[in-house]
């Protein structure tokens, strides 16, 4: 049985966001140790875009499967990634590091959830009554 393309997109983008966050942590430790790594900022921007793709895919998957929790987690990760980029650009090092650790944990959790508990595809889009709180 093949996976739904939206679910596959969600899983790939979530896994890529988790992988990029690990790379960012390694590069961040090098910067703290005194080695300047110029690619940290560029990879941070790419990580934000990948987190945004995951959030859009999670929204589309929520419409098919009804899994609101996965969507909310993915949307939260995109917001945290945006805040992380902003903190880095503003030079707020301590806050940037703290939020970076939170993003790393959340990105790994999102990737895990997207593979382990993605929800089940119904025949069509989820009825509006099911999506409302």
From TrEMBL:
Superkingdom of the organism of origin: Bacteria
Keywords, alphabetical: Membrane, Transmembrane, Transmembrane helix
TM annotation in the entry: 41-62, 69-88, 94-115
Keyword Transmembrane among record annotations: yes
Protein name, per record: DUF4383 domain-containing protein
């Amino acid at each position: 049985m093949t996976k739904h393309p939206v679910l596959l997109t969600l899983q790939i983008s979530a896994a890529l966001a988790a992988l990029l966050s690990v790379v960012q942590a390694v590069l961040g430790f090098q910067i703290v140790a005194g080695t300047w790594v110029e690619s940290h900022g560029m990879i941070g921007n790419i990580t934000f875009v990948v987190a945004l793709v995951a959030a859009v895919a999670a929204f589309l998957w929520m419409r098919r499967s009804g899994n609101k929790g996965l969507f909310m987690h993915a949307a939260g990760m995109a917001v945290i990634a945006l805040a992380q980029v902003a903190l880095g650009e503003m030079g707020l090092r301590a806050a940037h590091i703290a939020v970076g650790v939170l993003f790393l944990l959340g990105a790994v959790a999102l990737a895990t959830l997207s593979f382990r508990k993605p929800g089940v595809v119904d025949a069509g889009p989820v009825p509006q009554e099911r999506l409302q709180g």
